[in-house]
Amino acid sequence: MSKISLIFLLGIFSMSLFAQQTLVKGSVKDALSFEPVEGVTITIEETDLYLLTDANGEFLFNKNVPLGEQILRISKTGYISKRFPIVVNEGKTVNITDMTLDRDASDAGDLFVITLSDDELNDDTSGADNISGLLASSLDVFQRTAAFEFSSSFFRVRGLDSKNGSILINGIEMNKVYNGRPQWSNWGGLNDVLRNQELTSGLTPSNYNFGGVLGTTNINVRASEARPGSRITYSSSNRSYTNRIMGTYISGLLKNNWAYMVSVGRRWGNEGYQDATSYSSNSFFTSVEKKINDKHSLNLTAIYTPNRRGKSSPNTQEIYDLKDIKYNEYWGWQDGEKRNSRIKEVNEPIIMLNHYWELNNKMKLNTNVGYQFGKLGNSRLDYNGTDLIDGFPQGGGANPSPTYYQKLPSYAERNFPDDLGNAYKALKAFENDGQIDWNAMYRANIGNGKNAIYALYEDRVDDRQITVNSILTEEINDNIILNAGINYKSLKSENFAQVIDLLGASTYLDIDGFATTIDEAQNDLLNPNRIVGEGDKFKYHYNIFANELSAYAQAQFSYKKIDFYVSGSVKNTTYQREGIYQNGGFPDSSLDKGNELIFTGYGAKSGFTYKLTGKHVFDFNAGYILRAPSIQNTFSNSRENHNIVPNVSEENITSVDASYVFRSPIVKAKLTGYYTKISDASEISFFFADGIGGDNTAFVQEILQGIDKKHFGAELGIEAQVTPTIKLKGAAAVGQFTYDNNPNLFLSTEPDDEAIAAGFVDGFKDFGQSKLKGYKLASGPQSAYSVGFEYRDPDYWWFGATANFFANTYVDVSPLTRSTNFNTDFDGNVFNDYDEDLARELLKQERFDDYMSVNLIGGKSWKIGKYYVGFFASINNLLDEIYKTGGFEQGRNANYRELRDDKALDTPVFGSKYWYGRGTTYFLNLNVRF
Amino acid sequence: MKKINKIKIVSSVILALLLFTSCIKDDDYGTPDISITEPNIPLEQITTFRAMKSLYDQAVNDGNATVVIDDEPDLYIEGYVVSSDKSGNFFEELIIQNKTDDSSPDNDPRLGFKVDINVSSLSDTFQFGQKVYVKMDGLTIGETSGVITIGKGDAVDVKQIQAAEYKAIVIRSNEIETIIPKVTGLADLTELDENTLIQLNNMQLNRFEMGATYASESFDEFDGLRLLESCDSGISMIMQTSTFSDFKSLVVPQGKGNVTGIFSRDFRDDFNVLVINSSADVNFDSTERCDPMELTCGLASTIGSGNLLYEDFEPQKNNKPIVIDGWTNYIEAGTEAWEGYSSTSSNASLGRSARFQSSSSGDDSNIGWLITPAINLDAQDGETLRFKTSNSLSDSSFMEVLYSLDWDGTEAGVTLATWGVLSAAYVVKDTDSFVPWFNSGSVDLSCATGIMHIAFKYTGSGQDTFDGIYELDEISIDYVE
């Protein structure tokens, strides 16, 4: 501490004797490179005065400068903050040039984004999707805690999923039109070049777009604005990948007005924490900028991050008890190797061209064109392969899942309660093996000698999307900034299934073996009874076209005591489905283009910040957003027909929040209360449901329409720099996220005989209202707390520890069991043995155990000649606490009697499926910068 | 230059590191070696199907329901899989027989067993024709649905072998044999043919089954039962198809030809059935059928008040052949004839009735005709026929009601005359309960002209798979005055 302050105290301020105004000005440079540093926050402590350095690293306070002894604080993410005492005399200028900032050698900001953003964050099957990992670059202690400490527990900020926040790269929105969520893998492994992030949280205005209620993060990959240097990183972990190497070169703006960024990386591992979760990902990035003249600059960026990883399964408690929390049902041995049947592949390169135009020193126009294409695939096993005999499909196999309910001890126990030997045999068999039997599938296919019975295939989404936008920023005067933008996005999304491996056979009959007539059985009536081979498309094939045209405008006002803003947006969205196959179940509503759906959304928000004093600041925001439903939640069964969710409409979101901010030289704290209400939402979940009309496994779509949800709660973040080396920090999130009405429930499936027997008309059934009001949303822990400390030794080593507590995590309830289907018999009357009290007990939402995790982190850095070497290690969940992070009820026990009988068992046959958090894991990182 | 050096450093380090990275294999798998180690079972541990069946027969003779095979020593039977659940017509069972053809040496006669296993898609593992060894020690032999079944169990029941253990009990060989079914006539089938693969030639589905599906009619519960009949002998048998089979909604073939399947018993052990592995096992390629001539006047809406003939068999003697003036009681085959009988049990007669019983006849074939006197259809209008039938476990034997317009009235001329079927008449079916009597309905005869004889014909044998009993009474021919 003394080093730093003294140098600058003694050194470098002088006074201009001739100025009339009282000024404080200066500049900041990188301690190593002596290059100017842009975007450094300069604060005069105990006041509300702060500003950012410009591109030359310079700053100037020219209004309301307090006189006397003051302390100047300079800080920027990635650097170690410094404080400088100054003396301000009236009418004089304090000029402190060339203050230096030291790199924060720990670079901890790196760590969690790496391991989370493309791993847990991206688990589309679990619905565990959150943006907290992205908040790492925030200066707010609560948000940083959410990123570093909470996100591995699938904590969601305000209980909202990531579609409520926008992720932009160079001003181009990266959220997928399909579900509104960002596909994190699309830029995974490029941490070195994605550091330059601008984050606005909540409804706070962003300079790039209107945003959602969780704010906007713009990742700036402009080559000229990245910090020059080179870096090589190697990491080792036992979380998702086991090894990572990355190399990056950033030129900075060269004398010829060109700037380059290149980054390559590879992350790989045969197995992460869960069994057989293979990981293989390469990352390539390049960005080139040419500064044409003072007014124009062009930047071209290409991002290519192909990623393949083996998924892991949610399991019932019975399975976890027999195995462990690393157990994964998706794999089996083949030729001595673990082969995972569920591989997710994301391969969607992005190319973007950005034009920066400084119309004058007050007005900037930024125009961007982005194109993204490629594929997203999820593989799985099909076991319904048939042969055409007498013009009809005959055959089909057994469910290869090792956890298929009939293979488990609970099933034997339920069916042979007097002969528990059977349950014991099943238990032993599962304990000793309990994985997919690839060889048996090969044997069955080869033995059959005709078409494949078992096949590995991939559900594919091949998107081609172009985005064009222009963003205008104008400083009307020192107090007013205007932003306006116009944005056009056009997507063609091609969806199909593709045969990957026929497991020893060479053909597969592309037909739905469960249908009643041969016409209904056709997946494509245009090519009946089609025989397909590896690499062929089959099952379903259709395009979705989506267009979005939107505009936004906002004005930001800042004054001495109060800042405020108003912002508004409009958006026109159209969706249209085009069937390439004519589905036999829906011959009249599957082929060619369906109706075009048009949605009109708009948004309005406003807020103010009242600066009572520099210490006490109040902030208030309110907004209303009407937005189109995502494609996922619009088409009820897009694989087979044009049908849409009944009464589908735009969703309404109303959100307000209020904060109190306390800032003193030692303590910084922020307390926020929020209330968000989402209404008229629809949700479609797809799953293979057992027991809807017989024992067959049917692919059903569960459609919830007209959902209202209520999210309210409070967030607190506090940190105290108790000594120059020790910082204490704490954060708390207390929320309640619930269903706020009883939405309508529909199920949709194949229109076959069994569906008709189960009361479906044209494959569709209205289940009336699902009595969900008051049930908690399955959005991770609704309450989370963290306390911890950091110690930073002046000799460039540091460590920290945190203890985190999570509470009020709930299972995702099945809407079907909360519908009238639950208590009504086949004739519409209530079951004659229906017991209201018991029913209430059965339908009680499961709350998971509260838990605590302790995380440690520490590191050291050295300077060896020109090279900076940094090392750090972190340990997550030090105490190896076993905890559930989420789960869902199985839809199979759809009525009172079944649920009652099943829950009466020690181990239910169709118990809820859970995700468990990881046990103790480590992450080691070594990097060299030069 | 400095910049270039940096690029060089970065790229060379990356390359060096990448050289050490192993490839992650998550696709491009080849076909694994799936051959089975040929089980090596000492010959002395292999016993015959007959030996197993005798153990069971002994147990039954001793009043037991099952026999549990001793745990020691290791004991195997060697057989061939003849069932396939691929098309869903078999479920959680394997049918194995000891021969690949119809050979049946005395020391090891052709036999079959059902093996009960609580596993679906057994055909993934056990192919049709695959040689298997069943490790018998500790297993139970008993009867389920009327056929001999191997499984787990106790002294009372045969239970399913569980998924966790079946692979250690039913052991596969690499050998997959071509199974030649036993070609046989319906009348020749015996209990020993149960659980074996048979082929029936020159068969067709009964004309009343035309247009029906294998097993997806509204009245099909668990199984679709369709009447197969032989064009050679006229004998019929039920083809049983599961309502869970993949081909349940296919329409049964309309022609005639051969059919191959497992000879078995229905679920309640009431009658014989043929169960096919897949619809491909029915090869009724010939479009010609062998349906009888039919009188198709249908049923009459009214019954006239005049009566041409009424017979209630009251004057007949029990267990003596029916003798009535003008009637013919002709034995075409065997030693049994239509006889008088009376009973007041649950299987009651209507006072005295006529019946045909072939059981215990010892005959290979029993065919008996009871023929009415001549009826002149030109002498009056609106003639109708009524009668009642009942059975006592018909066991695939069957009774027909026929008419002839050209019979010369002699016994020798019976088989030479042209006989047609009065298809509108309801005759008790194999699947009907033995208790009630069934009305034939008022069969309209008035669309025919000339001299008609009506015959009640029984076909059966002394074999217990074909030795049913039919009862007949209250025959009445009326006309409109």
TrEMBL record, chain B:
Keywords: Signal. Transmembrane segments: none annotated. The keyword Signal applies. This is DUF5689 domain-containing protein. Residues 45-282 form the DUF5689 domain. Residues 1-25 form the signal peptide. InterPro entries: DUF5689. The keyword Transferase does not apply.
